[in-house]
Amino acid sequence: MSLADLNAFPGYQPDWSNLNVIQRNAVPPRAQFYNYPSEEAALTFAKSEADYASLNGDWKFHYDESPFTAPSWDSADPTTWESIEVPGHWQRQGYGRPHYTNIHYPFPVSPPNVSYMNPTGSYWREFEVPEAWDGQQIYLRYEGVDSAFTVYVNGEDVGYSQGARNPAEFDITKYLKPGQNNSLGTRVYQWSDGSYLEDQDQWWLSGIFRDVYLTPFANTSIADFQVLTDVADDFKSAGLKFNISTMTGHGPVKVKLLSPDGNVLGTYEGSSAGDVSMEVSGEDFHLWSAESPTLYTAILSAGDQYISQKVGFTRIEMKGPNMLVNGQPIIIYGVNRHEHNAHSGRTVPYEAMRADLIKMKQSNINTIRVAHQPHHPDFWDVADELGFYLIGEADLECHGFNDINDTDYGAAQWTSNNTDWEAAYLDRAEQLVDRYRNHPSVIIWSLGNECYYGQNHATMYDWIKKTDPSRLIHYEPDQNATSTDMYSDMYPLLDDMDEQIKEQPDKFYMLCEFAHAMGNGPGGLLEYIRKFRTEPLIQGGLIWEWNNHGLLTEKNGTEYYGYGGDFGDYPNDGPFLMDGMTSADHSSTPALVEYAFHIQPVEAKLSNDSTQMMVRNWYDFLDLSHLQASYYLVRDGNVSAPTDIDVSAAAGETATLPLPVNRNQLDTEAWLTVEFALKEDTSWASAGHVVAWNQLYLEGPMAGHHNNKMHHDSWAMAGGQSEANVTQHDNFLNVSSGGSTFSFDMVRGNVTWSANGVDMFHRGPELYFYRAMTQNDNGESGDALDWEPAWVHSMRPQVRDVFWKDTGDALEIRYNVRVAPAVLEWGAEADLTYTIPHGQEALNIHAQGGFVGNNTPEVIPRIGLLTVLNRDLDEVTWFGRGPGENYPDSKSSQRFGEYQASVSELWTYYDYPQENGARGDVRRVQFAHPEAGVSLEARMDGEPFSFTAKHYSDYDLDDAGHPYELSELDMTFMNLDYDSHGLGSATVGPRPFGPYKCYTRPFEFTFQLRLT
């Protein structure tokens, strides 16, 4: 029997598992535009005014485990199916489950083959073609379908497309029934051979997730066009060319160019398509940049078709090793942005997208890496308008091959260095460049992300350079910059950056990802931005990433933001996608506030001799005339009224001004706060928005060190009018002083304090060295790698000896303690001396000690005191950095001042619970019980300190994977820290840098508590 005599299933190779089929019958990619019936309609730029028939809304839907079990279009009755919303993912509408992996492919790896058990969604709806479109070609456009799909009109197979985040368009004219209802079927496959190229660090979600619509094209219509600008060497004029193609290849076309104010600058009318050239110069000419995004309007028309296109004049080039924009070597202050919405996944409403970009602009971000695939077409328009540089990235990542081959070379052989995949790679370059090249915001094209490096990338590079030589090309895995115009890197150490520009100085260096913004972090931004601003070859970087990818879900009626594993998905990478500078609800995290500060475009600081103020303009193009500068003075208990000042500095220049206050008249430490605010409204912020600010530390000749030392010396040891009453009962030493009663447990080391019938605290103050872990602590290179095997989390105090004596002025109780972990023999040994001044309601705690024993870790989370307070001591006032949380390597964005909050308000919300809420550089903190009229104030002798106060223990935070798993306790855990460890970004980056580490070295400090 021959093979020809055998029956076979399925008897053909499905498009979705066929490397030779990328699209079938799809229209080639073109520039994004809408057709309008008139010039007036085109000038609105509104879809509602366009020849545009949206097919969004309710569709009928049928879900199956395989394409082969999906209903036949010939026999099915889709009217009986369930309804589903388009655009949207079916996993967010009750079918299948969201699945998160960072690197791993969630399906068996056998490229280009895909399992026949391939979840499939069949979509169906009816539509009518507007009568006004009779006689024209009707195009059906899908802006995004994940992962691949086949289109059916009136039951006939129209075509197929894959490339999940790229649009696809079909000419359906011949399939339509004029004057009748038409049916549209779309069969969507969760997996395709294209899925091997879409292994990005995000949710695997399926379905028609972007807009679907119809648009007409007459035979005379413009089919595509390219905008080309040629800025003169003196940057005072530019040539403008439109490369236009029509549906038939010929026919009359018109072009009109309007100034930003709407004035006509030039017109063209010709009898055939091709190149249309104009020139703009003189007062009419303005460059486009992220700082000044000046846009012109072009109206292209052919017959009754009108197209509006925003035009920006910009010039991107290499000069020597550096990238120049409009003749200037810019610094990229960027962020990586995935498309994500907590409710709808990659279906992101326009308003939400625009709000994100406005928040970025208000946070001084100037560049967005369109990670790791092209975003919705509207996104690019908004970037042009608001002013962002874009790194447009191809929808290409195959990181999962690293699970199979642990070398980049081996992993590249699967697809990147395999010529069988060349067409698939090239298609993704074409889809990116041909659709979005008319946007002035695009300065760099990226060949993809974490797809190793192979000859297919070289093919992409060559095609892009030929098609669009006006932009640079990026690809981080190409470490030798063979097919890129720059060296790119992810999460380097500072020393590695220095080594890079030393060893490879021929092209500039950019960090396409740095400062992983996972949870509470990143720390160390100051050091990175300093590198960007002092090393000409380092032209900036982009933080990973913008938004936590939590998906809203619920458990037992409680809503929360889910991550990998919360939906039964396996394998998964847990909360690794909760790594944004905005939370899942798109609210700002402390990371964004800190980043905004470090990249602000104006910087004020004291001169080296502290006699003048230096104002540096970090803008690349703008002077400071659009900003109003002002200052005010902050001292403990006093804030002066703001006063305007005049500051003038050209882009890149520094102005020197006399100090606006007389330092010689200061008798206490003070901070000169200088602000720079918008004078006028912009498209992204109102007048008065503070673009930049600094606080300059001033210490007058009469001021003591931090000044707080002399204050609390005066109250800590004054008195001595009456001796304390001391009694011993078993292992308790009881002390009465003034209206306070103290009890010292000489076995457990516990101390309690009651005053005026109020229990001030239930436990402590005791030596304490632990904090709840952050996600960076627990990262792949985090400090928890040392702390866990050292059992730091299990450290507990042990009392060795207790001594007490009356010194005449005070009672001293000295504990000799060892604070040590289980299992191991290392620990901290210290004398902890409690001093109660006679006649005062005060307690001073002096700690002196060090770390001993084998296996002592080099660093430790904190060194300080833990006290468990009465929960009613709830109103907190402090003078120090605030109002938000801050840590040693992430504190610059918080201003010195006096702040008030409840203990609950000190809490910083994170989608994944972890250490939070510290306030640093504190001079004093007070916890008040308003009903009892009593408060507890704390200071540290001679030095600033940090504190936290929570209604949870550190171990509660460690145990919780979601906020709903936390329950507030009827007490407050107050930490007063002499030293604390920084945050770093060790989920995939460095640990805290040296100055921000809390070393296990000898310590000595005194905290002073008193009732007020």
From TrEMBL:
Any single biological process term in GO: lactose catabolic process
Molecular function per GO: beta-galactosidase activity; carbohydrate binding
Catalyzed chemical reaction(s): Hydrolysis of terminal non-reducing beta-D-galactose residues in beta-D-galactosides
Domain of life of the organism encoding this protein: Eukaryota
Gene3D superfamilies listed in its UniProt record: 2.70.98.10, Galactose-binding domain-like, Glycosidases, Immunoglobulins
The Beta galactosidase small chain/ domain, residue ranges: 734-1010
TM helices/strands, residue ranges: none
Signal peptide (UniProt feature, chain positions): none
GO cellular component: a single term: beta-galactosidase complex
Record's keyword terms, sorted: Glycosidase, Hydrolase
EC number: 3.2.1.23
Similarity remark: Belongs to the glycosyl hydrolase 2 family.
Protein name from the UniProt record: beta-galactosidase
